[in-house]
Amino acid sequence: MANVAVLLAPGFEEAEAIITIDILRRLNIHVETLACADSRAVVSYHNIPMVADHTLSDKIENVLRRRGITRRPAGQR
C-alpha cells in the first residue's frame, strides 16, 4: 500500500486538504496529516481548527532516530 503525507500549515485551504485526503483514502492510500507548526492543532484560512496526526518536526525526528541518525546543535561536527 502506498503512503502519503499531507502537510498542513497555518492558513491552509481546508477544502483542498480535506478533498485531497478523502480521495487518497478512497483509493486505499494510507494518509498521514502532518502539522507544519509547533503543535498538532492547525487553523485554516477560514479559522477552522484541524488536528493533524503528527507534527512535521516529530515525524522527522522519528525517521532520523529509526535510521540511527542524531541531530547535533548547529556548529558542531
TrEMBL record:
Domain of life: Bacteria
Pfam family, one: DJ-1_PfpI
Coiled-coil intervals, chain numbering: none
Limits of the DJ-1/PfpI domain: 3-58
InterPro entries reported for this sequence: Class_I_gatase-like, DJ-1/PfpI
Protein name from the UniProt record: Oxidative-stress-resistance chaperone
Lineage: Bacteria, Pseudomonadati, Pseudomonadota, Gammaproteobacteria, Enterobacterales
